[in-house]
Amino acid sequence: MTTLSNESYYIIFDNFRLDFKNLFSFALVNRHWCRIIIPILWSEPYHKFRDLRLIRRLFLTLNVEEQTLLNSFIITLPYHQESPLFDYTSYIKYVSNDFYDGVNNWLSYTGCKVGHELKKAVNCSLIAMFLRTCKNLKHLSLDETICNRTIFQNLCVNTTITSIDLYMSSLELKDGKQY
Length: 179
Fold this sequence. Notes:
This is F-box domain-containing protein. By secondary structure, the chain is mainly alpha-helical. It contains eight helices and three strands. Helix 8 (149-157) links the parallel strand 2 (139-143) and strand 3. The relative contact order is 0.11.
């Protein structure tokens, strides 16, 4: 019996990159396939960021420092006693604007009184986590409201990012003019 190399399996499964239903089915065939497919599933989550389960999984990855940004808010973070099977966020390559919609959906679903400061704190915590854990992060969409010292320090450490979209409502330069 001839077995394929991992690279060959990856090439085959990568052709199903946008066919999430089949990829999930393939991942259940055996452990070997699962180890190859999970990185493909998590590499480009795009619209999957709107899934409440995915946002919940992201909260489980926050470290103590990132959780402290949320301490002043009445928010119950998901709790998981067991460690996940995979370091899911390490596979993410793109964090798009859909991420912010997903956070808003999750906050609304949990019944939190969603205010500007809470959204800012949650987004900042999760973006800091992405910058810490995403070993293959290539593209990041940032909103001006979450850009702070922590985010910029983490941006300097993460050397895999090749493009950033920065969304700003206005820009004020040293001359005091807004653009």
